[in-house]
């Protein structure tokens, strides 16, 4: 069977490769360049690239697409402002006693929220960051804190300003030990050059779906949690390394990962709207020029054998 006979492949190649007439020789060259092992893998890869190319054209060449791009840009700027405001709130909370009892709420990306929900086994409606809890964490795990030990990395006040960035783009989300009152808790973990930094939140007192931030600490690499009571070496001893801190490089990476997470969340929102409103199928697919039309514009002709099938829509990439 000719490569051009594969269902949906001719259309996908057009979308991916523009106006170039793709004959069997050209398709075989593309097959070899992608390094795939089977025709099914090749069709899937080309259709995925075609879907991404089709979305890109839709976003750049239609009013609806440009509107989605503008909305995504607004979302990114709004999110950056909101997270920066939380970081500023934390800074003030550690230096201004009048902020005690105050709180801010952070909206996490869908995938992070879903990870936490899966660990807990129930929905999460909100994530609260309170001034009292921030001060509690600093008193225990900040510089000179009462629960520091030989495995601790003492957190400076400026390190606590990284808390919302860590929650927004964690490397891992894990279920933590239940609290004394029986409420469940979640850890948002970020890897450092010499250890890990952990942000903890628990189920709300009045509503388990309203999470509350309760702690933050950092440990040296390969050390256990400071709350593992069965590890004597982790019990408070105040024998910490005064020179080991969250480095500027680590802090920069945490912020950079936050920027990447915003981009991914904005892209997810765009793709969600495209799928919801089927913009893709109303834009390029109905107006897709046939191989005969493309060849005739270049002075060539096509036979039924060469034209192949153009049935089926190209797949939309989720990346």
Give the gist of this structure.
The protein is α+β, with helices and mostly antiparallel strands and 319 residues long. The protein is 48% helix and 12% strand.
Name some characteristics of this structure.
elongated, 48% helix, 6-stranded mixed β-sheet, 12 helices, disordered N terminus, alpha+beta, 319 residues, single chain, 6 strands, 12% strand
Describe this structure in words.
This protein has 319 residues and is of the alpha+beta class. It is 48% helix and 12% strand. The protein has a six-stranded mixed β-sheet with strand order 1-2-6-5-4-3. α1 crosses α3, α3 packs across α4 and α4 runs antiparallel to α9. It is elongated. The chain starts with 8 loop residues before the first helix and ends in a 12-residue tail after the last helix.
Indicate the percent of residues in helices: 40-55%
Distance between the termini: 31 Å
| SSE sequence, one letter per element | HHHHEHEHHHEEEEHHHH
Taking all Cα atoms into account, the compactness measure Rg is 27 Å
Spatial strand order of the main sheet:
1-2-6-5-4-3
The profile of the biggest β sheet is:
6 strands, mixed
SSE diagram, text form:
Blueprint: H1 9-17, H2 24-34, H3 39-61, H4 63-93, E1 103-105, H5 110-120, E2 126-130, H6 131-141, H7 157-160, H8 163-168, E3 172-175, E4 185-191, E5 195-202, E6 210-220, H9 248-277, H10 279-283, H11 291-297, H12 304-307
Parallel strand pairs: 2-6
Antiparallel strand pairs: 1-2, 3-4, 4-5, 5-6
